[in-house]
Specification:
The structure holds two protein chains of two kinds. Chain A has 35 helices and nine strands. By secondary structure, chain A is mainly alpha-helical. Chain A has four domains: about 400 residues, Sodium/glucose cotransporter, CATH 1.20.1730.10; about 80 residues; about 90 residues, Signal transduction histidine kinase, dimerisation/phosphotransfer (DHp) domain (Helix Hairpins, Orthogonal Bundle), CATH 1.10.287.130; about 150 residues, Heat Shock Protein 90. The chains are: A mainly alpha, B alpha/beta.
């Protein structure tokens, strides 16, 4: 097939996938998840287990080693059918703790230790490198098999150039779709859907080639079976040792591979999907393996002995002149490779950014840990990590020469990630497992794996000198890489698997038994091991009132973005029965916030950031004492007592708050009457005194004029006050007549600015506006809305205490609502007063006055309620900031 | 003898009215618009009468009164309190704090003149 057409089909296929992913993202954005969250999509996404290795390599494997290839399918099948309860526990923990990756899971289990996060990340990146190289190699290989020179003498580029292009293209696609959302728990619906589509493509492709082989080339199943029996494949002897080892490695890999963990746990939307997947995924694997042997046998029979068995899926249809079928097979292989690389690099990038880049950044800037835009940094580091991961894969491909059989490379990765297994499984079932044990076990396992399997895979003499293979390092015979402790007769893969797992587990158990878990570890251990007993995870950990809610809000805004943070804080405050954006820092709230932040930056980092604000390093001495002295029973008993006590405390708090509110209302009513009396009597005093002076006579004319003017001014002041009071009472009763019409927001702000420009004191005020955003037509009562704007602008003019006063007016439109923020650069409003400013006569300094009667913001609040909107104080914006929100189209009430 | 009156009141129009009324009655009126320097001003002037508004910017009139009564130099000065709140509670508080007279706004000019005459012994 001409090279150009091949490249075009690949591009068209990628664009199609892009379209699928984009459509799914849009659906998810609009909240219509529907079938995007079905068990079917979940099961199909699990099929990224079947990479190009399974697609091309399994046939080669069968041609070389007979039925042994089946272990790669049987391992996961055994895990999904027999160990589904382990998977269910993992998924439950993952959802409850908002786990973002396997590194996050292990770090989080062992006391949010970042050391473990780094170890897991390093192992995962190193182990995944050959695996990614394998995908690049298979795509490159299939390109070179498929592409033929065109008639005009154009030769396809060499394999190295192809590999570069493939790696670059995959990096671009992954960055475009994998790093749009920050919160890993927001899940990549687009990617998952695209992967489900690819799962279908590769299954159809492989079955189509199989059907063609059995019914098109042979004469049906009976003939096929006869051919299999006659071929060399039937003669392969079963090696029980290798079978057991490979079953174990494949079973471990399906849990431990970063990409499998990503789709199985992180992207899981509903635990029940696992029930479907526990039978449907083995079924998919069965269908994928059904035609492997027939294709292998037919390939060995028909194709020349020099043909690479890894490419039979492609070369068989080509040799038979079935161009379309070959094209389908090519796309199937392409799908297998792309889906694996995309998910693997997303998973690894999340780990690298959360466990390496973020902690380093936190440490480098401890003083300003929560300033600056963390989101951009996180996204940038994820994007760069994706590039680095694919770059490493390419480098391995170049170094290993791209000649090794596909299956051999894949197995190296399997054994590498299996090093997570002891820490993970013991971690979720044994509370005695400790951080030191996990770190020791994984490090030992990793070193053994690297020494006995990974480094030798570059070939003797490439990394480890050839002499070491024969004599051992420094002539120590029992340390030969492929014959540790003198075990020389074992198959190298089995040898590496055996020693790495045995030493890993031994180090893990020894480390765990000889060290004592820290308090945070014990809490997390209990939360993980007993995940099914405690519905909301561990409520302990944060103490009430240590952190300042405004600081927490500022930090959260940097990580989650302004709007998401405000929405989250407002909902939390509402849950506590408070208005505004600042909930009390209760332990429950702190725990929820930590989990929410953990979804963005990982558990360890989130914990560190919150700890900085809560003013403690990690845990208090009391925590330590309490944990050290307790036995397991006492702990469980006290946990139960504590939860009851907490319930009572919560009720008492709710009652106390309700009572306080009532008392405040009563005090406010008295204060209101007293205030009205004061506000009316003051102008009346002047009026009465001067009118008596005037009636007493005997005054020079200019004094008569002067005193007359004072009487006039004070009478006007009285009238204005009465107007305000009446306005307020009409607004509060909801009997106000609204004059609805379409009005331009920009013009309304112009009017307000013009009216408020006479406010005293007169001084130059810099106004920042965003005119294009203001160009919105709103259906509302324009005069009323302008009244609110005037109030806010004149307040800023009156009270902003900056030397260079500035007012920023920013407008946003979302959903059916428009928000207008007015933020000045003064010192803002003290937290204690923020709840009071919208009350009547709530001038902030109790005994003083600054001109008005103190009804302005109360009227604003009532006006906004009548306009179907809100006015709120925005904390954490530097100066005083108010947000006015109105519906874009206010409909007349139809009662 | 001219009675010297120190008036501490933040509303400029009310200050102007009282100054006019008392000046015509032969008093020498000094006015102060806020409570910050009030105690020091009283010590410096040693007037025959202090007229003190209850609600002042920065500090409450009751607070100033308490300070005057605590200081042996100003302890015996006659003080008249003015208030626009007009609630029984405020009157009691002012009398407890040692006010010699308590006047509610608005007042008639005769009332003001009579009270000042009584307090300055004129």
């Amino acid at each position: 097939m001409p090279f150009n057409i091949l490249v075009l089909s690949c591009l068209a296929y990628v664009i199609f996938l892009f379209g699928v992913a984009w459509a799914a993202e849009r659906r998810a954005d609009r909240g219509r998840l529907g079938w995007l969250q079905s068990p079917l999509i979940y099961t199909l996404s699990l099929s990224i287990y079947c990479t190009a290795w399974t697609f091309y390599g399994a046939v080669g494997y069968a041609a070389r080693s007979g039925l042994e290839f089946l272990t790669i399918y049987l391992g996961p099948t055994i895990v999904f059918i027999g160990w589904w309860w382990v998977l269910r526990k993992l998924v439950r923990i993952g959802r409850q703790q908002r786990v973002t990756s396997i590194a996050d899971l292990i770090s989080s289990r062992f006391g949010k230790s970042n050391l473990l996060g780094v170890i897991v990340t390093v192992i995962a990146v190193v182990a995944a490198t050959p695996y990614i190289a394998l995908q690049l190699q298979s795509v490159t290989l299939s390109f070179s098999v498929f592409a033929s020179p065109t008639d005009d003498g154009f030769a396809p580029p060499g394999t190295e150039a192809t590999a570069v292009w493939v790696a670059g293209g995959l990096a671009l696609f992954t960055i475009l779709f994998g790093t749009r959302n920050l919160d890993a728990k927001e899940q990549h619906h687009g990617i998952v859907t695209a992967i489900a589509v690819e799962a279908v493509v590769k299954l159809i492709a492989l079955i189509a080639v199989g059907v063609f082989v059995v019914w098109g080339m042979a004469d049906g199943p009976a003939d096929m079976i006869a051919r299999i029996s006659a071929s060399d494949v039937a003669d392969w002897k079963l090696q029980p040792g290798r079978w057991t080892g490979l079953l174990f490695a494949a079973g471990a890999a399906v849990i431990c591979l970063p990409r499998m963990f990503q789709v199985m746990v992180v992207e899981n939307a509903d635990e029940r999907h696992l029930a479907t997947a526990s039978w449907a995924f083995p079924l998919y694997l069965f269908a994928m393996s059904l035609f492997i042997v027939p294709i292998a046998v037919m390939g060995l029979e028909r194709l020349p002995a020099t043909a690479n068995p890894d490419m039979f899926v492609l070369t068989l249809p080509l040799a038979e002149g079935q161009g379309a079928l070959a094209m389908l097979a090519f796309l199937g292989g392409f799908s297998s490779a792309t889906s694996m690389v995309i998910v693997e690099s997303i998973a690894l990038a999340t780990m690298v950014s959360n466990h390496v880049v973020m902690p380093v950044w936190l440490r480098l800037r401890p003083a300003k840990a929560v300033s600056g835009d963390v989101r951009r940094l996180v996204l940038l580091s994820r994007r760069m990590s994706i590039g680095v991961v694919l770059g490493l894969g390419y480098a391995y491909y170049r170094m290993s020469g791209g000649s090794t059989a596909l299956a051999a490379i894949g197995l190296i990765a399997f054994v590498g990630v299996a090093q997570f297994l002891p820490a993970m499984i013991f971690g979720i079932f044994w509370r005695g497992a400790t951080r030191i044990g996990a770190a020791l076990g994984m490090t030992v396992g990793f070193v053994v794996w690297a020494y006995t399997l990974f480094l030798p895979s570059f070939g003797p003499g490439a990394v480890i000198p050839a002499l070491v293979f024969v004599q051992g390092p420094f002539g120590i015979d029992w340390l030969r890489p492929q014959a540790l402790f003198g075990v020389a007769t074992m198959d190298p893969l089995l040898h590496a698997l055996f020693w790495s797992m045995v030493l890993n587990t031994a180090a893990f158990l020894t480390g765990s038994l000889f060290t004592f878990p820290g308090p945070v570890e014990r809490m997390q251990g209990a939360a993980f091991v007993r995940v099914f007993d405690t519905p909301s995870g561990s409520p302990r950990g944060w103490e009430r009132g240590l952190a300042d809610p405004e600081d927490l809000l500022v930090m959260s805004q940097r990580i989650m973005g302004d709007d998401d943070a405000l929405v989250f804080f407002e909902a939390e405050a509402k849950g506590q029965g408070k208005a505004g954006y600042l909930p009390d820092p209760t332990p429950e709230f702190m725990a929820r916030l930590e989990r929410r932040l953990a979804g963005s930056v990982g558990a360890a980092t989130a914990h560190a950031m919150m700890s900085q604000l809560a003013g403690r390093a990690t845990v208090t001495v009391e925590d330590l004492m309490a944990v050290a002295s307790e036995s397991a029973q006492i702990m469980e008993y006290s946990a139960r007592l504590e939860s009851q006590q907490e319930e009572v405390t919560r009720t008492a708090r709710a009652l106390r708050e309700a009572n306080e509110k009532l008392m405040q209302l009563s005090i406010q009513k008295d204060a209101f009457l007293s205030q009205i009396s004061h506000e009316l009597r003051t102008p009346m005093t002047s009026i009465r005194a001067f009118s008596e002076i005037l009636t007493e006579g005997d005054l020079p004319p200019e004094m008569v004029t002067n005193y007359g003017r004072i009487i006039h001014d004070e009478a006007k002041r009285l009238t204005r006050l009465l107007d305000d009071l009446l306005d307020l009472s009409v607004l509060e009763n909801g009997t106000v007549q609204l004059n609805l019409g379409l009005a331009n927001l920009s013009q309304m702000i112009d009017r307000a600015l013009a009216s408020a420009s006479h406010t005293k004191p007169e001084r130059s005020f810099v106004i920042h506006r965003d005119l294009p955003m203001e160009n919105i037509f709103i259906r509302t009562d324009a005069d009323r809305l302008v009244q609110v704007f005037i109030n806010l602008i004149s307040n800023a003019r009156k009270y902003c205490d900056s030397d260079m006063p500035e007012l920023r007016i920013s407008v946003r439109q979302r959903g059916g609502r428009v928000t207008v923020d007015f933020a000045d650069n003064g010192s803002g409003i003290p937290k204690a007063s923020q709840a009071l400013i919208f009350e009547k006569f709530a001038r902030l300094t109790d005994q003083t006055r600054a001109g008005g009667a103190g009804l302005g913001l109360a009227i604003c609040r009532e006006v906004m309620a009548n306009l179907g909107g809100t006015i709120t104080y925005l904390p954490g914006q530097g100066g005083a900031a108010f947000r006015v929100a109105v519906p874009l189209r206010l409909e007349r009430k139809t009662d | 003898m001219t009675a010297r009156v120190l008036l501490i009141e933040d509303e400029p129009n009310i200050t102007e009215a009282i100054r006019f009324i008392l000046s015509r009655d032969g008093c020498d009126v000094t006015a102060l618009a806020d409570g910050a320097g009030a105690v020091a001003a009283v010590r410096a002037e040693m007037p025959d009468l202090v007229i003190l508004d209850l609600m002042l910017p920065g500090v409450s009139g009751l607070e100033i009164l308490a300070q005057l009564r605590a200081d042996p130099v100003t302890q015996g000065l006659p003080v008249m309190m003015l208030t626009a709140k007009g609630q029984g509670r405020d009157r009691e508080a002012a009398e407890r704090a040692g006010a010699n007279h308590f006047m509610t706004k608005p007042f008639s000019n005769d009332e003001m003149r009579a009270a000042v005459r009584a307090l300055t012994g004129g």
